[in-house]
Amino acid sequence: MQFTTLLYTFFMFVLCTFAAPLQSRQETVSNVKCTSKTALDFHTSNVALLQICGGIAGTIEKCQGAPTSTTGQSGNVKFTITPVIKGDTINISKGRWEQGIKAAFAVCGQNIPFTATFAGGATKGDVNVVYS
Predict the structure, then answer these.
(1) What string of DSSP letters covers 79-108?
(2) What's the distance, Cα to Cα, between the start and end of the chain in Å?
(3) I need a surface site. Which of 58, 70, 110, 116 has the fewest CB within 10 A?
(4) If DSSP codes are grouped into helix, strand and coil, which group holds residue 112?
(5) 22-61, pLDDT tens digit by residue?
(6) Which of 81, 95, 83 is nearest to 53 (CA)?
(7) In a 10 Å sphere around its CB, with 0-12 CB exposed, 13-18 middle and 19+ buried, how is residue 104 labelled?
(8) Which of 73, 55, 72 is nearest to 64 (CA)?
């Protein structure tokens, strides 16, 4: 019984060691600037969040159609995404998009307007995001 427990513990230790990333993850966002102190409407922001790239709700996992800029808008809330490299195309995944939004909100506060640069999200590099 003890041998089995020790073997299991050793196996889990080895498994966790290899599951750990070999290098630290790149920062999700940079150049975050909070552009207001007033929070935008939560529901309207969530709807606008999923309107980028013509809509990324449901089973869509990535920006479709390789746009050179895109907006997501609902009511008076708007997200604008442009590539840092002029002429580049946007291919941001839903996961990267949501991760960037959460990271920017961690700096500014939930639903506080901001401008930021999200790591990746374009074919050749990063994307600039304006939430207003």
Answers:
(1) EEEEESSTT--B--BHHHHHHHHHHHHHHH
(2) 61
(3) 58
(4) coil
(5) 443 456 899 999 999 999 999 999 999 999 998 888 888 8
(6) 81
(7) buried
(8) 55
* pTM, 2 dp: 0.79
* Most distant pair of Cα atoms in the chain: their distance: 64
Using only C-alpha atoms, what is the Rg of the chain? Answer: 19
Nearest C-alpha neighbor of 120 from the set 62, 77, 65: 62
Encoded amino acid at 96, one letter: R
60: its two tokens: 């869509």
In three-state secondary structure terms, 1 is: coil
Please check whether residue 96 is in contact with residue 118, taking contact to mean a CB–CB distance below 8 angstroms.
yes
> Is the Cβ–Cβ distance between 92 and 123 less than 8 Å?
no
Lookup: tokens for 14? 């080895």
Contacts of 86 by beta carbon, 8 Å cutoff, 6+ apart: none
What single-letter DSSP state applies at residue 122?
Answer: B
Strand 29-34 vs strand 114-121: parallel, antiparallel, or unpaired? antiparallel
